[in-house]
Amino acid sequence: MLIDRLVASRTEDAAPRYYRTRTVRWAVVLDDAGNPNLIDRADANYKSGTPLATPYLTRTSGVAPMLLVDTLEYVFAFAKKDDDKAHRGAARRHDAYLALLQQWRESSNDPVAQRICEFFTTGRHLDLLTDPRLQEAKSSDLVAFLVAGELVQLRESATRFWAQVARTRKSSGSEGFCLSCATVGPLKTVPEMVKGSLIPVGIDAAGRPKRGRDAAVVSINTTAQGRMGTLQLANTPLCEDCGGHAMAALNSLLSDPRHHRRGEDNVLTWWLREPAAEFDLRIIDTPAPEQVSALRNEVVQGESGTVVDDSDFYAITLSANQSRVVVRDWIDMPVLEIKKRFRDWFDDHRSTQAWADGIHEVGLKAMVQATGRWDRQRKSYVAGSAASGIERELLRCALHGGPPPPNLVPRLLHRIRNDHHVDLPRVAMLRLALNRPPYLKENVMPGLDETATDPAYVWGRMFAVLEVIQRQAIPDINATIRDRYFGLAMSQPLAAMRMLRLNANGHLKKLTGRQATRPAGWALHAQLAKISEALEWHTALPAHLDAAAQVRFIIGYDHQRAAEMAAARAGKAAKDAKAAAAENVAATEPIA
Fold first, then answer.
1. 3-class secondary-structure state, position 389
2. pLDDT per residue over 574-586, tens digit each?
3. Residue pLDDT, tens place only, 51-100
4. Hey, how many other C-beta atoms are within 10 angstroms of the C-beta on 264?
5. What DSSP assignment string belongs to 30-97?
6. Across the chain, how many H-helices and E-strands are there?
7. How far apart (Å, rounded) are the C-alpha atoms in residues 311 and 289?
């Protein structure tokens, strides 16, 4: 199924079959007389060389030369180390490279092939080895040939001959039924691997991405791995065209920034059966309000039948284990269904925040960072402290419409209990957890719910008001009740409320006792009393809160705090507008 969808998605390749774009550092330019000139293709934009389409087949530790464009070791017998073993290995590879050139010359009768073979047989290539620039070169640097301004590896005779070489090397030696195109013919091994740079393999201790190896989608090298002791593509039979097209399509999708999303140790790539259809999965990381609104409208129109989108959505999540590709996830569904799941994802986590009005969606990467440790001094999350694997699990939750990972809530509660930091990404994940199993979709509102009577939610609202009362009474306080007692309030609300409510009485008495703060003091007193009324006698605060109740406490606290700050911004805006209006009236009055 996966191979079939990749084959169907394939467009015309820019590079010939069995070619790959690689970085070429050096170029040998031959003039009409066969005189060589070595050019360094590195420049300010391409410090390691320029990317070119070159002949390529996966090779292991054996000797397997590429046609024309290969490493310095193959082209000039440039040894990796200065010892006898390395020099002997370089000589073997160079001889195999020359033999391949001779085969090309004999099969094509191309005069350019003759000229390049003479370049080596006459020993002119040895003159280039004296170039001082090669003293700092790596044996793995690639070398290409130019004749009359033309890249020789792209000549028709070269591409045709290399395709024959590739078919010979990758042939399985048997015929069978191709699972993709349903034809009977010669079966081939997959001619190309997934480039090592396209699948993340994690980060090192310094936080830098590790470089992976080229990895094979199908690799059955021992009888224990295959069915009934069979090896290679006898287990997944593909013809040459289907195998080549599938890998070309996969590498192209993984290289296209519009069609892949990289995680820490995995990559997701997606495409549509009808490319003209519209859906960009990257909205999950940058959910602009207008884009999310448009997504909701598309779902409504699709569900009502106003607009019919009969395209299909395909997505595959890959990671790498040494030189093998691991398929983590595979999705094949109508485009409308994936849009519904993303609509539900945004609806289930969107929430208010303290520093901006309205309801906000959160990017997935911001959520992942919020599972880490909060640094109070830097006011940011500590890099590398996020939960391992949480990004992949949350992405799967969005794509499949399922529950978040079971370790998400305990992780967040632990972090909040220790650093007392509550922000939009953390609240969004907690709300997502309550709105999906195993919490049986409690349908927690995205903003302040003044009608809610759940004790934990009401207690969270009360705690936010108690914090405001303390700040109003002691404006220059160094540590608020959130800094000191938030962890206690999360787990033991009854004990915390008795203590904090008693302290709040003293703060309110201080506020109401002063002329300047008396209105604010009575307003806060009334607000606290109104919220307390939601705690009826049969729903009084318990002595302890379980995990789900702790989540509701945090959400109630955040909702109340966001509402308080939104009211403060509205009041300030009204006051500024009134003052501006008064200034305009004064400016327009005539002077007596």
1. coil
2. 888 888 888 777 7
3. 999 998 877 668 999 999 999 999 999 998 889 999 999 999 999 999 99
4. 18
5. E-TT--EEEEE---SS-TT-EEEEEE-----SS--PPSS-EEHHHHH---SSSSHHHHHHHHHHHHHH
6. 18, 17
7. 25
